[in-house]
Amino acid sequence: MLYSLKFAPEQAPDTEAASCPWGDVRAMLHALGLRPTQQRLALGCLLFAKGRRHITAEMLYEEARGERINVSLATIYNTLKQLTDAGLLRQVAVDGSKTYFCNNTTEHHHFYLEDRHELVDIPEGSVDINNLPIPPEGYEIAKTDLVIRLRRKTA
Amino acid sequence: MLYSLKFAPEQAPDTEAASCPWGDVRAMLHALGLRPTQQRLALGCLLFAKGRRHITAEMLYEEARGERINVSLATIYNTLKQLTDAGLLRQVAVDGSKTYFCNNTTEHHHFYLEDRHELVDIPEGSVDINNLPIPPEGYEIAKTDLVIRLRRKTA
DNA sequence: TTACGTGCAAATAATTTGCAGTCCC
DNA sequence: GGGACTGCAAATTATTTGCACGTAA
Predict the structure, then answer these.
(1) In a 3-state reduction of DSSP, which class is residue A83?
(2) Which residues contact A88 (CB under 8 A, 6 or more apart)?
(3) CB < 8 Å to B122, chain A
(4) Half-sphere CA count of A119, side-chain side, radius 13 A
(5) Are A84 and A101 within 8 A, CB to CB?
(6) Are A109 and A130 in contact (CB under 8 A)?
(7) Distance in angstroms, CA of A34 to C1' of D24?
């Protein structure tokens, strides 16, 4: 909440860097060859500020609206795709419907809380996957996704 | 192809058992409390006959139409859901769009061939997952899904 | 200015649902 | 016959796209 207020349209956009752990969102966009528009600056900050790290387009949209950021859902989708293509976000498929985006691009895996429809990082190193099978001829591993689905204990 | 011809509407439905590795589809449906309608018998046979084991609703629909089985997409979805709920099929999320159903309900994992949009079983035992993390308070593991995404080698 | 971006609304795609008609028990 | 089942078409949900207008370099 705090961090994103600095991106409200009426605020000076040059002050955002300090509030975003990822560093300077403006620099990040520049490095990607993307214009630092108000929408992208704001979304970049929401996405890379500490706090929430697994988000759907719809969730990000609601979060942005809550922060009075003027942005359309189409732009949310565009931006998420651009950042994903750039390798700054990781897309996680959990069920056949919503798509989650994760701002942690290190090798790690996820818990999925079925009752809350929520993704949670599994701390790095706490799961070992051994004996990764050799891919069929002509293929190489692009990435490995491990999702441990959790249900509420009934006992 | 061969196996499903026996389920064409004009054929005697009592002969299907021999052609379906799962056993007697009629008995299976009975055990689930589902009426052995022509559609369900035919779909049950397509799903549990050897051969294809990872299928989407759309794929099953096309396969059924190819076999002259008269069935609607809505019924495909209904049936897939019923069989999944009954534990006879396993649903696998691969990307944010299509949902795959797998007729292998043993613990196993998948390759996903990104270029062909195809799921392939990884032989059981060829991947070890160790140190499964302890779920947060109040939760237990419902299932673990490991998908190894493969891309075509560019080299 | 001028190409890149954005918002809106319409288009897709996958799946679900409501309901009238059909088929097993 | 009666309720379970099916098919169709309309409704939903998630996402993409086309295009007129806005805005950063």
Answers:
(1) helix
(2) A28, A48, A103, A105
(3) 133
(4) 26
(5) yes
(6) no
(7) 11
- Strand order of the sheet with strand A54-55? A54-55, A99-102, A90-93
Q: Judge: B151–A142 Cβ closer than 8 Å, yes or no.
A: yes
Highest average pLDDT, of A10-14, A17-21, B36-40, comes from B36-40
Give pLDDT tens digits for A96-152. 788 999 999 888 999 999 998 999 999 888 888 888 888 999 999 999 999 999 999
Provide the residue count of chain A: 155
- Residue A106 is given by DSSP the state S
CA atoms of B108 and B119, how far apart (whole Å): 12
Q: How far is the CA of A58 from the C1' of C9 (A)?
A: 18
The model carries a pTM of 0.83
Give the residue among A52, A26, A38 at the shortest CA–CA distance from A104. Answer: A52
- Which chain B residues have a beta carbon less than 8 Å from that of A147? 93, 144-146
Q: Where are the alpha helices (DSSP H) in A12-128?
A: 25-32, 38-48, 57-66, 73-85
* Tokens describing residue B63: 């396969």
Query: Which nucleotides in chain C have some atom under 7 angstroms from a protein Cβ?
Result: 4-9, 13-18, 23-25
d(CA A143, CA B148): 6
- Output the six-digit token pair for B94: 């691969």
At B142, the amino acid letter reads A
